Amino acid sequence: MDKPNTECAATHVVVVGGGIVGVTTALELRLRGHEVTLLSMDKPGSQEAASYGNAGWLNPGSVVPLSMPGMWKKIPGYLLASNGPLKLRPSALLQSWQWLLGFVACGATQKRVRRIARALRPFLADSAARHSALAEAAGVPELIEKKGLLVVYPNKAAYEADALAWSLRRENNVVWKTMERAELVALCPELGERYQYGAFIVDGAHCRSPGGYVAALAQYAEKKGVRYISGCAEKFLIDGGKISGVVYNGNKLACDHLVIAGGMGSVELASQIGDKLPLVSERGYHVEVPGAEGGLPIPVMMSDLKFGITPMTGGLRAAGQVEFALKGAAPDWRRARILLDCLREGLPRLKIGGFSTTNHWMGNRPSTPDCLPVIGPSSKVGGVYYATGHGHLGLVSAPLTAEFIARLIAGDAVPEVAPYTVERFCRGGKE
Ligand SMILES: Cc1cc2nc3c(=O)[nH]c(=O)nc-3n(C[C@H](O)[C@H](O)[C@H](O)COP(=O)(O)OP(=O)(O)OC[C@H]3O[C@@H](n4cnc5c(N)ncnc54)[C@H](O)[C@@H]3O)c2cc1C
């Protein structure tokens, strides 16, 4: 990880997007000897990116897609509950309905969710080790903690009702240990009475400051020779069907390759290239209680309330919620207040002040209907690659995404990316 490998044919690669995906990709490309420019509207690590405010989970158990058989029956209940985990603003119905139908269809059968789980597994399997190595190299080893992750249930029956999810995990070599209340409390003394049963995911890890981590990786990348430009990619220069440059803030920047890693901004960029990315923003929220991080030794997912709590350097963070809203619509802080209520429910003995004492945040998960990222070459323009659409799993998936892109740009055959290419959206939903 230390020295740039200058053996490969050096080309100039522009990576658009300074979130976790863009930054890890820029770094990987630089370490493989390319001249790399990272072009981002927002400074790496800043609050505007989804990569700032996530839950920090590096969970090998995330092979379970969000869309599962029978999901369609639960959606109306979620939507009707004012304090539930899902909200569809009426104004966003028109832009979201097609995506939602695709989302439900992708998880409609066991065969489909098994295929998605197998496709997610490579990103998750050794993610904690990859992130530890990155954090170590960037001089922030303390930001990745490998202490396991806990999923808690009101009782054993609720755990058993999740049997398909756990069988997907078993089939994908995820290791866990089930626990009764006494063991749960030994691990997390503040855990509320509501939770009597749980599963400890042994190889789980977490990032203690997702924003700080991206900033540290970007600094390390700059130290290694990545050039950083603060600007907005506006259009692309294409010569004979191949990318030759990017225009940002009115300036031209020549390049041999371009990586589109702009999170939700990737949709607009791809449309200029002629590719259609069916991403929608699944907006998520967090509340962070400064000073309360000592109250929870490891991250916990409250399975019934559909949110996760993570001890971060800046406080105890409760993250979750899915909201569909029009682009640019103001955050609805009621969603964050729900998370604070859930936090109180999950850890009732912890001293937690009112909402005004918390830090709260909203961000855009760039999500595909089939719960898989978009990684691979553009179907329209040579030299352009996508590294986006990671939805709920962008942090955990970033290191392998970066490796895939670097191998593609090196001209290697990378058959593993077949499930993630943009072309899958043109083929339709084949099984
Ligand atoms: C509440 C919540 C909890 C989550 N929890 C987890 C978790 O526990 N584990 C996990 O793995 N994932 C989690 N995620 C998902 C994860 O945060 C995202 O998948 C990930 O951050 C996406 O990273 P990204 O780099 O693709 O996009 P972003 O972080 O959004 O970054 C995109 C960047 O591109 C830049 N950009 C966009 N357009 C342009 C342009 N035209 N020109 C220049 N720059 C541009 C933006 O400025 C931004 O810097 C969570 C998300 C949320 C919202």
TrEMBL record:
SUPFAM superfamilies: FAD-linked reductases, C-terminal domain, FAD/NAD(P)-binding domain. Keywords: Oxidoreductase. GO terms for cellular component: cytoplasm. Residues 12-408 form the FAD dependent oxidoreductase domain. It comes from the Bacteria. It holds the Pfam family DAO. The keyword Iron does not apply. GO terms for molecular function: oxidoreductase activity. InterPro entries: FAD-dep_OxRdtase, FAD/NAD-bd_sf. This is FAD dependent oxidoreductase domain-containing protein. It comes from Acetobacter okinawensis. The lineage of its organism: Bacteria, Pseudomonadati, Pseudomonadota, Alphaproteobacteria, Acetobacterales.
